[in-house]
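Because discrete structure vocabularies remain unfamiliar, it helps to consider an illustrative case, giving the amino acid sequence and backbone structure tokens:
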Amino acid sequence: MEDFIQILNQEIKIFHEYLKNRKFDYCNVISNRIISNSVITKSEEFVLVGCFLKQLVFDLSRINNNEDKDEFSKKIENYLKKIEKTNDINIILTRYYDLIKNINVYFTTEEEKSFYQNNLKFTHYSIEFLVKFLISELNEDKFIHSINNIFIGFLNEIERFLKLHDFTLKELLLKFIMIYSSKLYEYYRIFIINDTQNKGWYKKWEIYQVLIKKNLDDYLNKEEQEYIKQSIKLLFELCKEWRFMFIRLLEPIQKLNKIEKEVELPHEIKEKIQDLAKKAIDEDLEHNEG
């Protein structure tokens, strides 16, 4: 483990240099390297580091104001200093939590800042409601895999509460479970859609779906510390398979675009559909105007 901490510190130093030079795409590459190295060395704690840095780079890319960008970059640098030379999960997790609690200001409008207040009770109630909804959706399992976006949709909803109404470590870990459930599903559905040789990719995905559902159940029924502990273990498993999927397919969006092109309708049929749609719209407008 000591050797790996040295390797991690090397990666963090490189990340730091890229951050100072505003090479944010390279920062993302380093984050992925940390996750991959953590999978190889079976390190749950450093998977967390990679996931957190990857998210920070994404957050940084959303900031347009250069002064805010510089300020946020310094906050990330401070986080790196606090986790340097440690493999203590509590330090890695709580220091990130402290940082995230102070960055929502970059992503809220002046109107939101004026009207919304911290309300953990509402966050807990709302996210429990959404977790129950997601569990019911996963239990029914009637998704059309070519268009399903349930994990991203769920993530989009819960992030609103985290941004506007405050959150605990429990909600923060749920967010990361959803981020990497979504990333993994993006790969699996490519195999599911194209599984013409019955290689069982849907059954393999079912294994992860069961684990994700259990995590959601745990969110509802377990105490915070127990949920966090189980979530870190699941996050490692999701990240491990996600990196294996990257080896198999590289970027999933390239494959999905290829699938869409392969099933593209002939030009003549497209024109007929467009003509029919235009006619229907025109008739509807005439009816409304009458």
The chain is about 80% helix and 0% strand.
